[in-house]
Fold:
Amino acid sequence: MAADNQRAYLMAQQSWGDATRQQVRVIAALIRRETRVHFGETRLGYLWAIIEPTLHLTVYALLFHYILKRHAPLGGSLTLFMLTGLMTYFLFSKMATYLAYAVDGNRALLNLPPVKPFDVIAARAILEAATYLFVGFVLLVSLSMFDTAVVAPYNPIQLAGAIASTVGLGFGVGLVNAVMRAFARNWMTFFGLLLSPLFFLSGIWFLPSQIPPPFRDYILYNPILHNIMWVRCGFYRDYNPSELDRGYAVWWSVLAVVLGLALLRVFRRKLLEPT
Structure:
């Protein structure tokens, strides 16, 4: 009896391992396909991923430095301050938006037995996260060549935690968006309206301590604001804001992922219905 139980356990472990390896291979293949589709076959497609945030950074840096005569609230570089805010916001918003179209963009592949909705969404999430982390690194290195006040991250562990929290939030919201689009085709128009005020209220070019109460209390409900503050804690040695609640940021990320996965599982058949 004991031998039979052990044999069954080993078979189950082997079956689980085979399924995991197959899913990894499927996601890896989907990432390669998404790279070709998302960026195209030319180098310009890859360059646009760098050009877009660079244009945002340049325009806002010129606006705040030369027109509004603003100085960096932290450190000596206004561009570094804005880069930490912009790239964190883009990491969230681009992932939350891009994942929403994952099922529609790969609907033909979902007819294949090994490919599931989670696989196509996970592939897009990995590609988008890797893209913007690479873009952030390239911009940071480029800025350091022209601005001596641009510094490397002071606390990489803090930075890694903030990035993980931001990626988790973007992934979870992207899962929710993918499911919501199955019920309302115009859902992303509404989501875009939600993102517009978040762009101005997430602390990209200001510190929460600069906002007087009670408005400060209201914007602190925004988890993206906490993730941006957390990222800046990784860059600036003396920055440890009392307003930052890392637990709150992580709680929102976990909640978004759990909710998104639950919706994906419950409404899987709805997602697979032809449009």
In short: Residues 1-14 have pLDDT under 50 and may be disordered. The two ends are 52 Å apart (CA to CA). The CA atoms of residues 181 and 237 lie 43 Å apart. Residues 2-39 form the longest helix (38 residues).
